């Protein structure tokens, strides 16, 4: 068993091609802890978000703070604390803060691939 203590959370700047804007992350469970489960806290500053992307696995998002957006090509959803999102494998999507509010979520992932689909200048501006 592994216990990750909330009091030990220390989000660090995320430097990954998938993010645009100021994003900080903290890993609760990575490959060093779990064979098939990845848990990460992701904090988006206002206006920050992921680029359009898709995963080879299903992804769960539990919104923990603020107000944000989770979008596919067909729908754009405003999300708030307590909301839970399931993104299907291979579904093109993005998620992040609104232009005026920060948002944080816990991302529940599995081992697999994430494909970034577009450069930052091709992302649709999120609603506020």
Q: Helicity level, as a percent range?
A: under 10%
**CATH level-3 fold name:** Jelly Rolls
The biggest sheet, with number of strands, parallel, antiparallel or mixed sense and barrel status, is: 6 strands, antiparallel
Average pLDDT? 91
Rg, nearest Å: 14 Å
Q: Specify the number of helices.
A: 0
Oligomer: single chain
State the low-pLDDT regions, or none.
120-128
Order of helices and strands: EEEEEEEEEEEEE
**Total domain count:** 1
The CATH class: Mainly Beta
Strand content of the residues, in percent? Answer: over 45%
Report the principal-axis shape.
Answer: globular
Strand tally is: 13
For CATH, the homologous superfamily is named as Jelly Rolls
Structural class per helix/strand content? Answer: mainly beta
- List the strand order in the largest sheet: 1-3-4-12-7-10
- Rounded to the nearest angstrom, the distance between the terminal CA atoms is 41 Å
| CATH A-level architecture | Sandwich
Brief summary of the model shown:
This protein has 128 residues and is mainly β. 0% of the residues lie in helices and 46% in strands.
What does it look like?
This protein is mainly beta. It has one domain: Jelly Rolls (Sandwich). 0% of the residues lie in helices and 46% in strands. It is built from no helices and 13 strands. The chain has strands spanning 12-13, 19-20, 23-29, 38-44, 49-50, 53-55, 59-66, 68-72, 76-79, 84-87, 93-97, 103-109, 114-116. The strands form four sheets. The chain has a six-stranded antiparallel sheet with strand order 1-3-4-12-7-10, with no helix packed on it. It is globular, with a radius of gyration of 14 Å. The N and C termini lie far apart (41 Å). 25% of the residues are buried.
């Amino acid at each position: 068993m592994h216990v990750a203590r909330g009091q030990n959370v220390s989000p660090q700047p995320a430097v990954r091609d998938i993010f645009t804007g100021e994003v900080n992350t903290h890993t609760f469970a990575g490959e060093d802890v779990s064979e098939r489960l990845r848990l990460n806290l992701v904090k988006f500053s206002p206006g920050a978000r992921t680029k359009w992307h898709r995963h080879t696995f299903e992804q769960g998002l539990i919104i923990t703070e603020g107000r944000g957006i989770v979008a596919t090509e067909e729908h754009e959803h405003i999300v708030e604390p307590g909301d839970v999102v399931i993104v299907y494998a291979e579904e093109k999507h993005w998620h992040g803060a609104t232009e005026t509010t920060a948002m944080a979520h816990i991302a529940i992932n599995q081992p697999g691939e994430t494909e970034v689909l577009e450069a930052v200048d091709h992302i649709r501006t999120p609603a506020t």
